[in-house]
User: What shape does this take?
Amino acid sequence: MSPSHEPPGLTAGAIADTRRWLERAVIGLNLCPFAKAPHVKGQIHYAVFEGAEPAALLA
Assistant: This one.
């Protein structure tokens, strides 16, 4: 992944929002019974895609 061109707060905010969604929806509503253990152990890697074209995700 290339270095961030976004202000650090935007990337950190996106990751914080995703973690909150994981805790409240996925884990909180027990949508995936396997999600809690790796979350609690800090084993989930979060990355922010900064490209403009969805096709760049496949490159």
Observations:
- The chain has a mean pLDDT of 89.
- Residues 18 and 39 are 12 Å apart (CA to CA).
- Residues 8-58 form one domain.
